[in-house]
Structure formats: structure tokens, C-alpha cells
Amino acid sequence: MLFDSEIDKAVRSGTPLTETAPWKALEAHYGELGAVHMRELFSADPDRFDRFSLDLDGLLFDYSKNRINETTVALLADLARASGVPEAARSMFAGERINWTEDRAVLHVALRNRAGSPIVVDGEDVMPGVNAVLKKMKGFSEAVRSGEWLGFTGRAITSVVNIGIGGSDLGPAMICEALTPYCDGPQVRFISNVDATDFVEKTRNLDPAETLFVVASKTFTTQETMTNANTARRWLVEALGDDAAVARHFVALSTNHEAVEAFGIDPDCIFEFWDWVGGRYSSWSAIGLTVALAVGFDRFTELLEGAHSVDRHFIEAPLEENIPVLMAMLGIWYRNFFDASTRAVLPYDQYLCLFPAFLQQGDMESNGKSVDREGQRVDYQTGAVVWGEPGTNGQHAFYQLIHQGTEIVPCDFIGVINSHNPIGDHHRKLIANCFAQSEALMVGRTATEVIHELLIRGLDKEEARVLAPYKIFEGNRPTNTFLLDRVTPRSLGMLVALYEHEFFVQGVVWRVNSFDQWGVELGKVLAGKILGETKNLVTNGDAELSHHDGSTRALIERFAARQDND
Ligand code: F6P
């Protein structure tokens, strides 16, 4: 039976999660450790870094600058165990239907299963299908990159435009940006927003005869993507003067064959995937075609291999030494016991500039939920707000709040040892800042240190006393640091998979379904209605708006009355 852990049983028999023994033990432990400063923990334990860091295939995870001791790790592991994390992980890898509100398996791990082992869903091994699509992606990406695939007028493809949104955009866009040093194929651009400005600016200066549109949409019904795809088709056909051009300039990545064919894309140009691939977990599927076009299929394979090595680690390593489990449980420690409502992801590598935006969807669409497995509203906090910017820019923008604001913001620093652009001492400066920030957040600066410094600077005792409170840093602000040797397809694949499993573990413990996203539906439905009403108002001067609240009605009316470009 799915989800039949000790905690599931307790909850079903009326004990709320927050009243179960593992949760209560953490609560009591928080009472003892919550006020202890990490400075003390470091000075009491010279081996703290060794104790609280792990190396996975050259990727270092340093979690020593957290408000934890060995008891914390043991208690967090107890909670994970009692929540059935290992069993749930095995169910996911075995293709069980763990997405219970959509009655689907969750098998992004099958897409990067390099072990050759079968994964069975509904009595059928999905791996032959996965491998067939990978083979097709290889063939197509190589044909485009070599110039063998020609556009309608006989010219080779020099530009690829990915049209998609959410998981059909954020993953491939982030990966292409992160792997810029490996991009040796056609230039790639990404159109996602239904705002025509996105289309206009991204197609500016493109030659239609040399442009390939990759329409990426699991459902092939998403309003933004279909609007952009239709505009792209018009743009192309107007330029090349023939509907038949679509066949050489459009491919689709989708689970919805019928809709793709109805759009007019050649069935041979459909790269399929399956309903057991969630949008935000889909970069490993056909949705990665744009990545393969940009960096080549071999490097795309390395990305899959990196993720696969994390999958092995996740399923095999004991909970206490399991990086995604530790990431997840530390997140729960701060979210539920320290009341941290946000978390920051801070990459110190310009190529990872889109990583925070990518994680926003991964984390917030997965765990921004408030109803549990029993259909009950939870009475504890779940997913935190994810935000971040690349270092060092963030330091000059929002780090002030992380250092001295009223709320703890747990941070993930992502540092890279070797830059792809080793010019002068740029990289050493960048990394010095990365290490300095996590150190400053941990140690802080005491009143005594501040006053001493002010006196040395020549202030008198009274002046120093008045200024000191503003200059004190409490410190004790938790951070993780990931240190990669270099941003490569493999290390990037590892990093993404670590976070994916982190979301999974948190969802299991919080007892929410990390794989649906019903919360985005209402806005979509209302947008459809308002679209029709606005059109009626503009064209006929009349629309039934009385069912809207006063604010929405007034906004629609003002828009219809004042817009001049319909
Ligand atoms: O925003 C909701 C959502 O369904 C995401 O989960 C998904 O990644 C995105 O829309 C795009 O969906 P599709 O790939 O079906 O166009």
C-alpha cells in the first residue's frame, strides 16, 4: 500500500503530524538548540566541517554552517524515516502512481536511467520508449547541427527558438544558459511570455529561412505557448510564402499528438513524452531537445548521467548521509521549527543566473500546497518562497536583509572552483565573496567587537555606544554551500537532480502531493472568461460583468475604454 508509514498510520488514526513522536522530539530539540550560536558549535568541535559535509563524485555539499548538531541530524532522519521517505522513493523509482490526485506515476528518473534496468508502468517497461525518443533526439539534433537538415528554401538552420512556458521553458533555458561555454550549435532563444514583446524581441534579426521553432508543450493547449506558436507560424509563412514551409521549420515536444497534428506539424517531427513526466521535471525528456540542439547530444547525455548518479545516491545512501534528504530535512527544520518563510538560492557563477528562477517553479509549484494525503488542510507550514540572484549582485541588493533582517533566510550558496573564463583575479574575487558571505552570516559581529572597532576608529565611548546597535550582526544565519569543480553538463545534471529529490522528500514529509499543480488552474479559467468579456466590450461596447467584484469590473472597463491598439 502506498504511503503507509508510521506517520501515515498515526495521522489516519487521528494524531496530527505535529503531534507525532518524531515531530515532538524535534520540537523539544529546537527548545534546547534554537538559541545556541553556531560560533559556539564550531569552536566546540574542530571536526565540524568533516562531520557535516559530503562529497558526491566531486560535488561538495557543506552543511556545517547550519544550526544543527549530531542529534539534530539523527532526529531529522528519524522524521524522514517515520514519514516513509525511503519507501516513497522506492515507489517513485518503481513507477507506482504516487501522484494520487492525477492518478499518475512520477518517472523523471526513468528518463535518465542509464543502468539499462527496466521500469514498469501498468505492466509495460517504459525504457524502450524512453530510449527510442532519445535516439530520435540524437538523430535530429545531429542532422540540424551538421547542416544536413535543411529549411524550406534549402538553407541550414542557424537559429532555434524554443516556444514554451513553465517547465517547457525554465529548465531548457536555464540549462542552455548554464552550458553556454558548450553551445557550439545553432544559437538558441526562448519565447515564453504571451506578451507579444517577447516574440518580437526574440525574433528580431532572425532569418526565417534559417530558423527552427521548437514548440514545447506537454499538453499542447497552454494559452501562452499556443498563441506564440501561431504567431510564429504566421511570421514564418508570411516570410517564406508557403504553408508547406511549416514542415521544415517546426517541431513539437509534446504528449498530445492529436493537437500537434491539428496545428499542422508533421507527425515525424513530434518528439513524444508521457503523462508520467511532470512539466517542471521534464528537461530530461524530449523537452531537452533545444538543449541537445545547442550543446550536442553527447553533452545532453552527460547531463542525464550526472542526474542518474544522484538518483543512485538518493536511493542507496543512508538517510543521514543522503544529500537530497539532508537538504530537504534542513529545509523542514527551518520552515517548521524556526518559522523561516523564504529561502535564497545564490549561485556564484554567472552561467547559473537562471538557476533561482528555475528552482522557483520546481519548489513552489511542487510544495506550495496546503491539503494533505487525507484531503485535510494542513496545520503546519509547507513550501517556502524561493528567491535569489547570482552573487555578487545580490550582495549589493538584498543581502542586507539576510544579514540583519528580522527573519532567518536559509541560503544555498553555489560556488564553482574553476571558471570557464579565467581572466585575471575575477574568479578568486568572486569565490572570496561567496565564502565571506557564508562566514559573515554564520559568525556575525558582537557588540564587543563593534565597540572595539569604533573606538579604534577614533569615536569616543558615548558615540560608540550609540552607533553600536546598528552595526551588530547577530550571525547564526544558516547556509549550505555547494562547491562544484566546474559547471559542466554532468555537474549541472547532478545539481538539478539533488534539488528535485529535495522537493520530493519535503512533499513526503509534509504529506502533500508534490506532483500536481491545481493552484494554477483558477487563474487560467478566469483569464479565458475575461478575455472574452474584454473582446465583447471593445467590439460591441457591451459585456456582462456584474458577476465580477468591483475592482475587477472597473479594471476591465478602464482597459476597454482606454486601449487604442485592438
Ligand atoms: O503553470 C502550469 C503548468 O502546467 C506547468 O506545470 C507547466 O510546466 C506549464 O504549465 C506548461 O505546460 P505545458 O508544457 O503543457 O505547456
UniProtKB/TrEMBL annotation:
The active site is at E365, H396, K524. It catalyses: alpha-D-glucose 6-phosphate = beta-D-fructose 6-phosphate. PROSITE patterns: P_GLUCOSE_ISOMERASE_1, P_GLUCOSE_ISOMERASE_2, P_GLUCOSE_ISOMERASE_3. GO terms for molecular function: carbohydrate derivative binding; glucose-6-phosphate isomerase activity; monosaccharide binding. SUPFAM superfamilies: SIS domain. Coiled coil: none annotated. It is found in: Cytoplasm. It is an enzyme of class 5 (isomerase). Pathway: Carbohydrate biosynthesis; gluconeogenesis; Carbohydrate degradation; glycolysis; D-glyceraldehyde 3-phosphate and glycerone phosphate from D-glucose: step 2/4. InterPro entries: G6P_Isomerase, G6P_Isomerase_C, Phosphoglucose_isomerase_CS, SIS_dom_sf, SIS_PGI_1, SIS_PGI_2. It holds the Pfam family PGI. HAMAP family: G6P_isomerase (MF_00473). Belongs to the GPI family. This is Glucose-6-phosphate isomerase. It comes from Candidatus Sulfomarinibacter kjeldsenii.
